């Protein structure tokens, strides 16, 4: 039996589901109220931020994607995937693929045809998924962060 699901733009009503996916699937421990504030800002900027969810026929969110327009003076514009999370129970059922396809179509409407992402070195199953979808690993990087308070 095939599970039916639908891809749509994310809304504030998805906050709890997104927070749960971030915690359970991506390992982020971020306060819900801060996540709400961030989500409100992102949703107010659809020109630069694209967010979608996949939900089943009972409106349960199975996964989500967040991307931003990535523009530099040394390359064509791209869509930079900042988050892609699918609930453990829905993995392997086409949810992640549906999210990437949604992003490809959204990019094409903007004349952007390149998708890019960074993925933690330890996320081997995610790397296999990305390769399966045609992504190529082009370099190894280090991540540096500086917090000014």
UniProtKB/TrEMBL annotation:
<keyword id="KW-0808">Transferase</keyword>
<dbReference type="GO" id="GO:0016747">
    <property type="term" value="F:acyltransferase activity, transferring groups other than amino-acyl groups"/>
</dbReference>
<dbReference type="InterPro" id="IPR016181">
    <property type="entry name" value="Acyl_CoA_acyltransferase"/>
</dbReference>
<dbReference type="InterPro" id="IPR000182">
    <property type="entry name" value="GNAT_dom"/>
</dbReference>
<feature type="domain" description="N-acetyltransferase">
    <location>
        <begin position="5"/>
        <end position="149"/>
    </location>
</feature>
<keyword id="KW-0012">Acyltransferase</keyword>
<dbReference type="InterPro" id="IPR050832">
    <property type="entry name" value="Bact_Acetyltransf"/>
</dbReference>
<dbReference type="Pfam" id="PF00583">
    <property type="entry name" value="Acetyltransf_1"/>
</dbReference>
<protein>
    <submittedName>
        <fullName>Histone acetyltransferase HPA2</fullName>
    </submittedName>
</protein>
